[in-house]
Structures are given as structure tokens and as C-alpha cells.
Amino acid sequence: MSELELIERAQQGDKAAYTELIHIHHRTVEKFAFQCGVRVHDIPDVTQEVFVKLYRFLHQFQRDRFTTWLYKITLNTARDFYRKETKEKEKGQKFNVEIKGNYTTKSAEDRVLVFEEDRELHNAIQSLDEKYRHPIIMFYFHELSYEQIAEVLNAPLSTIKIRLMRAKALLKSALQLNGGVKHGR
Predict the structure, then answer these.
(1) Exposed, middle or buried by CB within 10 Å (0-12, 13-18, 19+), for 77?
(2) Mean pLDDT in runs of 10 for the chain (185 residues)?
């Protein structure tokens, strides 16, 4: 069954078709969320929220490219997740926000970032402002076209091209500063 058929069946309430869509796109959502800066231990929560939103809004999907729409949902969910978390922390524990924000699960991170070069690249990408980080992730790691990135980010095509060019330069500088330029990178 094609993806479009699965979507149409899921829109009509077929839970098996929706489950199959989750199965097909689960890893992509997790990977994109991580690349957008979602902490490793928060990825399951963000991924679950993405698929809850997908289920709630699937009836609005209009034969566009499904993965582009899914990237939009994932990006917005990741942003919302940390906005909500930040507000909750500010209310209850202002002096602990920084400590909790720096908490990472090293063992899980080590499983995701197998090689030191991957860690250096990931850290360099995470250091970019999100207006540069998101386009570079979508272009290089998810192979979206400039047009698709512009659609996901709701930005003009010319802006995306400029941001990608700037992001490449910033990444190159960050990797050179950290000694991450190896093997001809």
C-alpha cells in the first residue's frame, strides 16, 4: 500500500493505517528532533507529541508532500516542548533552571553519537542559531530541497539560500576552532 493510500485510510479513521504511518516515519521524527536540539532523554516525549498532533490534524493534510508536513509538526513540537518546560522551570525553581538545562544522559548520547567526529559536528550544529541550524539539518541530513525547507520554515526561498550559505560558513569556522577539521573536512 502506498503512503498516500495509508494517509487516506488513516484520515477515514483506519487505525492500522495510522499505525503503519507511525512505523514508517518514527525514526525520521526522532532523528530530526535530536538534530533540532531535543535532548536525548526528551526525544520519546517529543516524538509521542508529534504523532498525537499528527493524529489530531491529519484531516487537514492536503496531498502536499507528507514528510514536509511532518517536519513542520516536529519542528513546532520541539520548540513548544522547551518553551513549556522553560516556563514551568521559571515558575518553580528559578535558581535551578541552569543546572537542569545542562543535564544530559551521557550513556544515551554515546549510543546516538558513535564517533567523536559525529559528536563534534553535532555540537557545532547545536551551537548555531536555530535560523541556521534548522535549514542545514533539513538540507544535509534529511535531503529536503530549498523549496521544501522554505515551506517547512515558512520563509522565502531567497532567505533559505542565504541562511544555508551562512550556516555552512559558521559550521566551518566552528569546526576549525574546535580542531574538528579532519580528513579533508
Answers:
(1) buried
(2) 89 92 94 90 92 89 84 91 70 47 47 60 87 90 90 93 92 75 41
